[in-house]
Structure prediction request, 253 residues.
Amino acid sequence: MMDFFINGHQKYLSKVLNFPKVIIGATIGLFLISILVFSQMGGEFIPALEEGDFAVETRVLTGSNINTTVEACLKAAHILKNKFPEVIKVIGKVGSGEIPTDPMPMEAADLMIILKDKSEWTSAHTFNELAEKMGEALQDVPGVTYGFQYPVQMRFNELMTGAKQDVVCKIYGENLDTLTKYATLLGDVASHIAGAKDIYVESITGLPQVIISYKRNIIAQYGLNIEDINNVVNTAFAGQSSGLVLKMKSVLI
Prediction:
């Protein structure tokens, strides 16, 4: 097989070498034409491959429990299924799996939006347009941030930079308060750049807290005490054990 190709190559090469000016001129002409075509093609920053489905990075407030994240995912899935006929189903993954190849906190989740074929779409004509409309619809869920990407693209971003966004800015230092300060400033600057969206500033210090101040004079008027009120508040936020049920099983021998 190799002899066949080598003989054919040598045969036509010997003929081409008899017209060097024509060959060089044609090569230069094709090169100039390619430059002209390339200059008219335009460009795109980090071009994305349309994979056919969406992967949505979903984050609630830092320190939230798994129930809050699950509730946010269910609300988002309900909105997408009801408002967009292009959606076949929505699959969510909260936190890390049993094999932690993709470590994620409890306040983070991945929503996989399985879409119909593009020819059956009615809400939008392009993926970018559909992502923008879905993002606007999901604003009805307060306290949650969403980032629309493609599944494989999102995984590659994580492998390369450790984050799921297309563009990541990392600030290094030893003082956590200073890092938080400059990260917030950088996020404010990036939010004013045309074309930037789904900006997420990772929180590295502190957690949101609810501080309750008791009005002891009013508590005394109702005949209550601080211990009972603390138990009610604790039950509302974290839950309490209401009792213990023992299940007995009898075995006849």
Summary: Residues 97 and 103 are 8 Å apart (CA to CA). The chain has four domains: 2-40, 54-161, 169-207, 210-242. The chain has eight helices and four strands. Residues 2-40 form one domain.
